[in-house]
Amino acid sequence: MNIGTHTVEITHPDKELFTDITKKELVEYYQKISQIMLPHVKKRPISMQRFPDGIKKKGFYQKEVPEYFPSWITTYTIKTGTGKQEQVAINNAATLIYLANQACITPHTWLCSQPRLTKPDRLLFDLDPSKEFTQVKKVARLIKDICEDAGLTPHLLLTGGKGVHIVMPLKAEHSFDKVRSWAKKRAEEIVHSDPDHCTLEQRKDKRQGKIFIDYLRNAYGQTSVPPYAVRAHDKAPIATPINWSELSTIHTSQQYTLKTIFKRISRKGDIWSDITTQASTLPKQ
Asked: Which of these, 22, 35, 51, 254, could form a disulfide with 237 (CB 3.0-4.6 Å)?
């Protein structure tokens, strides 16, 4: 397959990665979505979530770029606790296609971008429901109100898994520690205002059915699912940006799939296309 100035060989195109969805279809999806998706992933180190034998078999996460990856794929040198490693950045459509052929179903991106890899340009709350999606919607609106009152611009993402992400674009001015501290304070306020439905308890077996307000992703090296990424669940759900006005009509985070997302895009386009222009300064505590 020729993509721009690069050629990507598609191996085992008929291999089923999902029930009734082949690697060829995954590749074709990422090729078709690439121009919409690229602005949301460019210049960001990624962690690759790979399923070489399909989602019914165990997959794995891979941060460091394998030696056999072609030299035209952009990588960034990342400082780790024990040294350094090279991680992939999806800076063109060919890279996205190459990763799909490697059975990277979901590329997870950092909350910062090159050259400021220690200064996040996204602030994120991940709402992980224990049971009902209905309650997630209520908590999401509560976070929206708190963040808007602070001067931020909250955007809503169906993760394609169980919950939602509330994402605020930031000016890349502050450290991860400072951003996480601000997010933690807001999470504590949310739990205090609705202790019957919200929790900061990380252990699932201790949440008592409450929604986990996860602010911990706001850290160096942590990742989140980017818009339009495929998720490793039945029917290949898509991480989908939605308007706040749509939330009341949504009944599951897996509302849109590889086979239905383009109908939505044909009607609404990419509703996050201007997210970077809405970046705000992190409010004071």
From this structure: 254
Q: What is the pLDDT of residues 32-45, one digit of tens each?
A: 999 999 999 999 99
Instruction: Identify whether residues 138 and 274 lie together within a single domain.
Output: yes
Contacts 24+ apart (CB under 8 A), 189-195: 189/146, 190/139, 190/142, 190/143, 190/146, 193/142, 194/139, 194/142
Give the pair of three-digit tokens for residue 65: 């770029």
Helices in 169-260 by DSSP H: which ranges? 176-193
Task: Give the separation between CA 129 and CA 164, rounded to whole angstroms.
Answer: 9
Residue 95: domain span: 1-110
pTM, full prediction: 0.96
- The tens digit of pLDDT for each residue in 37-91 reads 999 999 999 999 999 999 999 999 999 999 999 999 999 999 988 899 999 999 9
